[in-house]
UniProtKB/TrEMBL annotation:
<dbReference type="GO" id="GO:0006538">
    <property type="term" value="P:L-glutamate catabolic process"/>
</dbReference>
<dbReference type="GO" id="GO:0004351">
    <property type="term" value="F:glutamate decarboxylase activity"/>
</dbReference>
<dbReference type="GO" id="GO:0005516">
    <property type="term" value="F:calmodulin binding"/>
</dbReference>
<keyword id="KW-0663">Pyridoxal phosphate</keyword>
<dbReference type="Pfam" id="PF00282">
    <property type="entry name" value="Pyridoxal_deC"/>
</dbReference>
<dbReference type="GO" id="GO:0030170">
    <property type="term" value="F:pyridoxal phosphate binding"/>
</dbReference>
<dbReference type="InterPro" id="IPR015424">
    <property type="entry name" value="PyrdxlP-dep_Trfase"/>
</dbReference>
<comment type="similarity">
    <text>Belongs to the group II decarboxylase family.</text>
</comment>
<dbReference type="InterPro" id="IPR010107">
    <property type="entry name" value="Glutamate_decarboxylase"/>
</dbReference>
<dbReference type="GO" id="GO:0005829">
    <property type="term" value="C:cytosol"/>
</dbReference>
<dbReference type="InterPro" id="IPR002129">
    <property type="entry name" value="PyrdxlP-dep_de-COase"/>
</dbReference>
<keyword id="KW-0456">Lyase</keyword>
<protein>
    <recommendedName>
        <fullName>glutamate decarboxylase</fullName>
        <ecNumber>4.1.1.15</ecNumber>
    </recommendedName>
</protein>
<keyword id="KW-0112">Calmodulin-binding</keyword>
<dbReference type="InterPro" id="IPR015421">
    <property type="entry name" value="PyrdxlP-dep_Trfase_major"/>
</dbReference>
Length: 400
């Protein structure tokens, strides 16, 4: 079984105070959607919405309250927002006597998969701005170029899941505002800030962006709302600011440790979600997927993945820095990565396994006939040799 604290793939909080755990268990049997039966849950949700609205500087008068809603995670929030954009666009087109059967949405190729689901479920064309090496977020200029009269919205990300980078929402807004003036369109922006929306206000308060206030729950029971309310009251602005600053400091410890090994290129940026995305300087013999796989022997869950088009030739490892990831854990991870790299250096290269493959039919070598192998036979032989070698190493080194 994996250790949630060592699961560095997840953006989701894996630790809360014991008092919060008790609150969750005490309210786990209360159904959040039964608002008449559990009205206090609705009141707590409304308080959470208003706290977040003030955090995001929503334009509210002294006597006004913010309007928001809890959703079953950020995916549902995107589905609801996307539907709202589609309906508003359709109503406007029908009022103008124009066709409304070919809506599209413009995103970067780095968007979370739920955007692809929205497009598929609700019959909206997804127009993706391709990435390129060294630039792994949506290019605002290219995005606005793709906008046409059928575009229901442009989706920007405040905290890409690939490398944590914040997309330039202000530049996108300026460019799109200018295009709307020129064309008479009213194409809006949706900011997907599921990760960065609760980081930017504390670490980068001067960053200009916009995000509709909402809270996300993973289950339809009151415990999620109550736990969120507890966290907001318990920590407050200063508490969250301290947590975010600690995460950023530990991110820098990990980043500097990886750089000192001389083996990795850092893909993530200084400003963004506290995470470290990195790739091997030389992956000609061993790749990032092997590093990820071997780190599991030490208990670490560190994902490896290829970038979306047109940067799919880049492979990346990613470590998300959460509240419970300490400086000690950062130093330990660097040490374990160095151990893995040392072991990989002593393993045979998967793609260079010492198997002689005949190029053209059967050939004679040193008096013996070598039979040409099929691609499948070759792959099976490489896999067998690799597995045998790894098993021998495990017998000698043991498993941590």
């Amino acid at each position: 079984m994996g250790n949630p604290r060592l699961n560095l793939a997840s953006f989701v909080t894996t630790w809360m105070e014991p008092e919060c755990d008790k609150l969750i268990m005490a309210s786990v049997n209360k159904n959040y959607v039964d608002m008449d039966e559990y009205p206090v849950t609705t009141e707590l949700q409304n308080r959470c919405v208003n706290m977040i609205a003030h955090l995001f500087n929503a334009p509210l008068g002294e006597s006004e309250t913010a309007v928001g809603v809890g959703t079953v995670g950020s995916s549902e929030a995107i589905m609801l927002a996307g539907l709202a954009f589609k309906r508003k666009w359709q109503n406007r087109r029908k009022a103008e006597g124009k066709p409304s059967d070919q809506p599209n949405i413009v995103t970067g190729a780095n968007v979370q998969v739920c955007w692809e689901k929205f497009a598929r479920y609700f019959e909206v064309e997804l127009k993706e701005v391709k990435l390129r090496e060294g630039y792994y977020v949506m290019d605002p200029e290219k995005a606005v170029e793709m906008v046409d009269e059928n575009t229901i919205c442009v989706a920007a990300i405040l905290g890409s899941t690939l490398n944590g980078e914040f997309e330039d929402v202000k530049l996108l807004n300026d460019l799109l505002t200018e295009k709307n003036k020129e064309t008479g369109w009213d194409t809006p922006i949706h900011v997907d800030a599921a990760s960065g929306g609760f980081i930017a206000p504390f670490l980068y308060p001067d960053l200009e962006w916009d995000f509709p206030p909402a809270i996300g729950e993973e289950h339809q029971c009151s415990s999620q709302v109550i736990a969120q309310y507890y966290q907001l009251i318990r920590l407050g602005y200063e508490g969250y600011k301290n947590v975010m600053e600690n995460c950023r400091d530990n991110m820098l410890v990990l980043r500097e440790g990886l750089e000192l090994t001389g083996r990795f290129d850092i893909i993530s940026k200084d400003i963004g979600v506290p995470l470290v995305a990195f790739s091997l300087k030389n992956n000609s013999t061993h790749n990032e997927f092997e590093v990820s796989d071997m780190l599991r022997r030490f208990g670490w869950i560190v994902p490896a993945y290829t970038m979306p088009p047109d940067a799919q030739h880049i492979t990346v490892l990613r470590v998300v820095i959460r509240e419970d990831f300490s400086r000690t854990l950062a130093e330990r991870l660097v040490n374990d990565i160095q151990k893995v790299m040392h072991e990989l250096e002593n393993l045979p290269c998967k793609v260079c396994a010492r198997i002689w493959i005949s190029g053209d039919g059967d050939k004679e070598q040193h008096g013996a006939v070598v039979v040409k192998k099929t691609a499948l036979e070759t792959q099976r032989e490489i896999t067998t040799i690799w597995r045998k070698f790894v098993m021998e190493k495990k017998k000698m080194n043991g498993v941590c």
